[in-house]
Each structure stands twice: as structure tokens, then as C-alpha cells.
Fold this sequence. Notes:
binds zinc ion; 10-stranded antiparallel β-sheet
Amino acid sequence: MRRLVFERRIHEAELLNPESGFEAEVRSVEHRRDPLTGALCRINVERAGRIKEGAKGGADIPAPRGASEGDCVFCPWNVESMTPRFPDRFIEGGKLRIGSAILFPNLYPFSKYHGIAVFSRAHGRSPSEIPPEEIRDCLRACIEFLAIAMEKDPGAAYGSINWNYMPPAGASIIHPHLQAIADSIPTRLQDELLRCSESYYKRHGSNYWIDLIETEAELGERIIHKGPFMVWLASYAPRGNNEVLGISPWISSIFELDGGRLGELCAGISKILRGYWDMGIRSFNMGIVPGPLDREVEYYSLNLRLLSRPNPEAHYTSDCGFMERIHLEGVVESMPEAVAGRLRKAFVD
Ligand SMILES: [Zn+2]
């Protein structure tokens, strides 16, 4: 095992603070580098306490259309007639149904193959209340959809399964749903993870993700939970707040995610979401990023990440500013070691 080195540098910014009579103060900004990709992030936990003027607007905004069950296009009584269907030659009957989940095309796709998988019973329930079995049904629908896309179009070898929960996270529909996408080219993150993992494997003769788990287990600072098939930890250099990384070390392909492996992954997602809820988090993104769909590769392990987004409220302050959207660097206000400490509790039943 190669022990990874975690790089960090602390810079100090001096200012005179009006809240303490313009006393001189020093604020710390910690720069961290992702041990695989070299991507940078900046952490200043004091930012969590800053005044957000937008929040003064209060919560008296009208609920979005479709926020109530009667109007919702994803609720069981509307989903058949109000959502699109695939052509029969792609999916017989136009929609995939697995247990409680139903999958149909995105009406406004941004991938060649773009499916929406709805947690059909979840309207009005918080994600922390969705049982692991319903998460499994939805994931199985997404995996089946990726398999169909691959079978019809073997070039569409790069897929992922994703979740935007609530409008601040990019969800246009409130009813909880996953999104599976597949294309002939990987997403930028997937491309970066695959290329860096392959070059790590060539340089060191070992799988980066397995080395990461072993190094993190030795350090013990960021590990949240270690199970037989899945390891959960707080990302060393997060892209966003409260970022959690889940790794399935022994597989790269999403099609190997079945039986006990899928069960453990769904139970883990459910526990993290419960932990998030207890931390007051009401909006998040999740992405499962597997290796290529057409083969198993030794240099990569299937992984997913979850991160929190601002809570839905009138005029909330976005967590994406010029640093994230233009400079592509996350400014984070949660310390990964503290996130791990808080989420460990979610795994103690
Ligand atoms: Zn609904």
C-alpha cells in the first residue's frame, strides 16, 4: 500500500473588525489539494457564521407549482399521463418500473441517454424518511436503464447516477428523483478521475482508491464507516460543504453493483441522509461515478459523493460564487474532520 500525502497550507488574512471596535484580527484560510486530481479547495469555517442578507426575507414565499401532491407531475396519479415515454424500440411500454420506482426520459435532456427515476411514494417525505429499499428500487431502475443504453448503443460507455434535492441544489421538481445519464464521452469529473486513477496505477502499481481507504483508516480522522463492501469518509479536499465520499473498493463498473453491495450502498446513503437531516441540511447533490460501462478496470473503484447545498428559503445565498463557477475551486465552510465526526453517529443504530 502506498501511503498518500495530504497537502495543506494555511494563509492568514489580516483585517480590522468593526464588530470588535476595529481590533486587528487574523482570519485563517486553509488551502487543500485533492490527493488524486490535485484540485484545490479553500476552507474557512468562520464563513458559516457570516450574515446572509438574503435570509432576512423570511420564508413567506409561495410554494413552487407542483409542490403539493395534487399538482405534482411525478406523483403516481399524474406520472403516467404527464411525463414522457421512450419509444417502444428502446423500452417496451415507454417506462421502466422496478418495485416502487418508475423511470422515463427527461423532457429536457442534456445527455444522449437521460432518464429520470422517481421515488414514487416520496412526495412530501424528507429524503431521511425514504427507506433503503426504495432507494434500491430507484438505483436498480437507473442501472437497468444504463444497461439498456449500452446494449442499444455500445459507444455510450460513460454513465452516472445523480440526485439534485430541492431547488437550491438545481432540482426543478420537488418530488424526489434520481437522474441517470450516459454518453460516449465522460463528464469532466469522470474524465479527470479516470485519467488520474489510471496514471496513478501506472506509476505506483496500485489502485488509488484502495490506497486512499487504507491511508484514511490509519489516520482515522475522516473515516465515517467501513463495511464489507463500502467505505464512507469525509473528502480531504471537498468541492462543497459537508462532502462525503463513498467508495466501493472492489468494483469499477456499475453493473457489478448488485445483491449485498447494492444493499450496503443504499443503507449507507440512507444513513448519510439521516445524518444530514439531523445536521439541519435540507438540500443536497449526489453523484455516483462509476468506471466505463463496457468493461471492469483495475485502476478505478466505483465512488459517489454527496454534498450539502443552501437550505430552501426566500433569497437564500448561493454557495456557488465566482470561485466555484469561474475559477472552479470550492470555498468550503465545513471542516472535513468535523463532518466525519458528526456523520459517524448516523451509522450507530
Ligand atoms: Zn409528487
